[in-house]
Amino acid sequence: MPEPSVVLRIKRQARPGSAPYWEEFEVPFRPSMNVIAALQAARRSATTRDGRTVDPVTWESNCLEEVCGACTMIVNGRVRQACSALVEHLDQPIALEPMSKFPVVRDLVVDRASMFENLKRVRAWIPIDGTYDIGPGPRMGDDEAQEGYVLSRCMSCGCCLEVCPQVNERSDFMGPAVMGQVVLFNSHPTGRLHREERLDAVMGPGGIQDCGKAQNCVRACPKDIPLTESLVKLSRESALFALRELLRK
Amino acid sequence: MARAPQIAVVGGGLAGLMAALKAAEAGADVRLFSSVPCKRSHSVCAQGGINAAVNTKGEGDSPEIHFDDTIYGGDFLAQQDLPRRMCFAAPGIIHLLDRMGVRFSRTPEGLIDFRRFGGTKHHRTAFAGATTGQQLIYALDEQVRRWEAEGRVTRFENWEFLSAAMDGGGRCVGLVAMPLGTLKPEAFRADAVILGTGGVGAIFGRSTNSLNCTGSAAGSVHRQGVVYANPEFIQVHPTAVPGEDKDRLISESVRGEGGRVWVPRGGKPWYFLEERFPKYGNLVPRDVATREIFRVVHEMGLGVDGKPQVYLDVSHLDAAATRRKLGGVLEIYEKFVGDDPTEVPMRVFPSVHYTMGGMWVDNENEMTNVPGLFATGEANYQYHGANRLGANSLVSCIFGGMVSGPAAVRYARGLAAGADAADASVLEGERARQEAENRKAASREGPENLYGLHEELGTTMNKHVTVVRHNEGIREAERKVADLQARLARAPVPDRSDFGNQSLVFARQMENMLVLARAICRGALLRDESRGAHYKPAFPDRDDQKFQKTTLARYSVDGPVVDYEPVECRYVKPRPRKYD
Question: What is the pLDDT of residue A2?
Fold first, then answer.
């Protein structure tokens, strides 16, 4: 039986660098409610369970369909999108925390700019000549298209970085997501023409050699992206590339 | 002008990204502002696909037919120049996206596959699984990142646009925006500003739109003098899953791939769309399907389990093939409802989905009535007339960026001294005004609840200004919105923090949303006819004599002032619109 109310236990932080603290909120339960709807109800009352009026909790969210990746946070100890976390499937009180591998901006909002910077570092794009109309792209079988499609659903949400033991304060590891993107672009007929640039980037600091093969990433990915497969593929590819470079010298 | 043109683009969805890309390619230095990281823009929600008459199925499809379907689907309210150019550019756009690495689904021959969508009889919709919008935005985001790496595009992600900066001659010379952390408004000089800020779903409370689709940017510049056109044309999509926090779209592609809409009647499934519209069946345009669902549910009382819902059924189709083509959509239903649609019919109902109206722009360059200020994508009023055809949004957004980006650069190059000529006090003045507005909003006191007011707005607009419109109801909504404007002044911002204050940002957005809500109501009230998504039972027919016209709303403190501009049907002459 669903409970008539929902208790949220939220790890809060006023601004970057300030001390975190916990607060509890209680809101009415509604059928098929997700964590975002509960947060919205708590925001509207802005009153804690013990009756104090406080600044409303802040969080990131946008699409609410689990395609934008914005509302990623730790829900009852597990990193996931809050929009697809349905209250009736969660133990209460529902504990909400910001991701721990990114700097906290405020409350549940974190700064994931580093993920986009890393995409820049590994040159995660197809280097087209220009946006002019110069006819169709390379022909491709549907199987190949589907293989790429699976990898290209990465939302840069950060779940895989959150669970990766190699992503921590003492390491520069760029994390599994960006490695998957390198495999994606290196597998495209045009992208392949520039694969060595990307391999070069992932063999540098924070690159593929930092992967500890814990395989947590693939279990945490909300889009079932075969990240470990990508990591293995990339290790092999970069090892061969390194060997070739060595022989060339 | 000796230096490189400086272009500011606001909005990191498909239209904004393409405008940024094209402007950078044309030699401009681009600043790109977005309230969310671009990858998280609302374009990701587009599921089913993108239209282009590539004609790979031997059906004799052509851009000319695509154009005709678009104008006819829009019930002859669209200006025709830009849609015509769009339909002819569409095949080239698909090829470009293909070259950018979009993983479109393929035919056995390795060509891009096309599926059916509403309002056409041709296979014209290219798709990447059922997350096409996501795939397209990623491709454009990647291309923009490449320009960023070369130092030609600078991103300002997590920045809120506040207003345009206009010089004494009424020319746009920059903008004011604030980062969502410190919330300190800053002014940026620009030779031209392009707004690709999307639709206005949040005005209707729950919709299929993402939460940042407030229309605030459009509302803000509307208050500064930008004409807002066809505000009353709001698309209500026939198939969405109602939710507490939002309504989740179930793509038209589900019907394109063979999904059927029905309700139980006399113990048997009644496929009412197929029966009423034998030629188009489940693929009638959205306004038509939505009205029919309303009739069956509200007038005939045949909603499933007596509730406002109908079945959308794919359980009769081959499960594996359906998963391959519609996986992303079915996944949403499974995750948020819990049933497997390949086994149990989905329960859906119409929801506010797309903003056909928007900022008025010219028929060539997408420039608003303010020189130097452009509007592109869903944010302008072009292309779709009174009703948008499915899968025409992605192509109109991308084509829009291809028009507005280069046009803004041309405009900048044509200026003698560019925005440099504007006195620094113009920008500083606008910045100071926005800072004062922030302070004013933050110091509001009174008994009202900011978020409660938003809920009231959504309830009223949904009830009176969506599918079935009555003048007395619209008048009631108008009064209500005016009342909400007064009450907003007594709604304190519940957050007292000077950092990352989302409530303050929302309070500022609400001011602009209410202004647009009034324009929507007034446009709807004055248009005594039925056309596309705008349906009044008291005036059930299209009235070309009186209303073959674009509604032009101008802002005044006492409420919108409306007049009209004729729609010139240069290529396709008006004819009755029928799908049965």
Answer: 52
Complex ipTM? 0.97
Give A76→chain B minimum CA distance, Å.
18
Q: Report the gap between the CA of B199 and the closest CA in chain A (Å).
A: 14
Query: Is the pTM above the cut of 0.95?
Result: yes
**Backbone φ/ψ region at A201: left (φ over 0), alpha (ψ -120 to 50), beta:** alpha
Q: Which residues of B are catalytic?
A: 286
Could A32 and B337 be called an inter-chain contact, meaning their C-beta atoms sit closer than 8 Å?
yes
What are the tokens at B152? 């030609």
> What confidence tier does A1 reach under pLDDT thresholds 50, 70, 90?
low
B chain contacts of residue A15, beta-carbon cutoff 8 Å: 497, 499-500
Query: Cα separation of B386 and A190, whole Å?
Result: 41
- Bridge partner residues of B66 (DSSP): none
| Type of residue at B580 | D
| Residues on chain A touching B328 (C-beta within 8 angstroms) | 67, 153
Within 10 angstroms of residue B305's Cβ, the number of other Cβ atoms is 7
The residue whose two tokens read 């390198």 is A182
Nearest to B500 among A109, A119, A136 (CB): A109
What is the helix (H) or strand (E) element at residue B153, kind and residue range?
A: strand B153-157
B505-549 pLDDT per residue, tens: 999 999 999 999 999 999 999 999 999 999 999 999 999 999 999
pLDDT tens digits along B126-158: 999 889 999 999 999 999 999 999 999 999 999
Task: Scan for tokens 């409802």, then name that residue.
Answer: B337
Q: Rounded to whole angstroms, how far apart are CA atoms B191 and B381? A: 23
How many CB atoms are located within 10 Å of the residue A175 CB? 25
Separation CA B541–CA B384 (nearest Å): 19
State residue B164 phi and psi, 5-degree precision: -90, 150
